[in-house]
Design goal:
207 residues; mainly alpha; 70% helix; elongated; disordered N terminus; TetR family transcriptional regulator; DNA-binding transcription factor activity; DNA-binding; transcription cis-regulatory region binding; HTH-type_TetR-like_transc_reg
Length: 207
């Protein structure tokens, strides 16, 4: 696993004492060791709590991973939704801002984004279904923008659904290679990928 990440913690204070430290400890453990390699005992040790107390919060490692990914998806959805609502303009402008918000989330929470694409395969049943539903809500933002642009003739792509899916995949994949010592700043990286997205949907000149 790639253990590089932003110093920004994914989980802030919650209503339950010790929950945030547990979730952030789990994030680091899953990022460094993978779902199968990390143990509940290790998570408890990293969080500075007992194993029995950890089980009071989360009955299994799968529940712990599912809650982490749900919270990551919630923040990504919130950032993307607010970015699109603020711009309130045509599809090209909204797509640009949605992509920038997604990329900035990945840079800010690289480890969470990486765990989200690499470890979700280990979830099953309702745990997996909850994460997929949360992820689909973010995908729907891109689907709707691209569909609107294609219907209006602003986007010339004959494959709007595939284009929207590939834009999201492109943004999430940044978590596998980004390094904060690279040549592009957070803002430059976001702008660059917004440019890629508009090219992918074949935005007509002048927009």
């Amino acid at each position: 696993m790639n253990s590089r990440s932003s110093s920004v913690a994914l989980i802030g204070e919650t209503g339950r004492r010790n929950e945030a430290p547990i979730l952030n400890a789990a994030l680091v453990a899953f990022g460094e060791e993978g779902f199968n390699g990390a143990s509940m005992r290790e998570v408890a040790k990293r969080a500075g709590t007992s194993l029995s107390n950890l089980y009071n919060y989360f009955p299994s490692k799968a529940h712990l991973l599912a809650e982490l990914l749900r919270r990551a998806n919630d923040e990504l959805l919130d950032r993307t939704s607010r970015a699109v609502e603020r711009i309130g303009d045509g599809p090209a402008a909204r797509l640009r801002e949605a992509v920038k918000a997604y990329v900035e989330f990945v840079v800010d929470h690289q480890l969470a984004a990486l765990v989200a694409i690499s470890e979700v395969r280990y979830l099953q049943g309702e745990n997996r279904d909850q994460v997929v539903r949360a992820r689909d809500r973010t995908q729907a933002i891109f689907d709707e923008i691209v569909a609107e642009g294609a219907a209006s003739g602003l986007f010339a792509t004959p494959y709007p659904q595939d284009a929207a899916r590939n834009i999201v995949t492109m943004c999430s994949a940044i978590s596998t290679w980004y390094h904060d010592t690279g040549r592009l700043s957070r803002e430059d990286l976001a702008q660059q990928h917004a440019h890629y997205a508009l090219a992918l949907v074949e935005t007509r000149p002048g927009h």
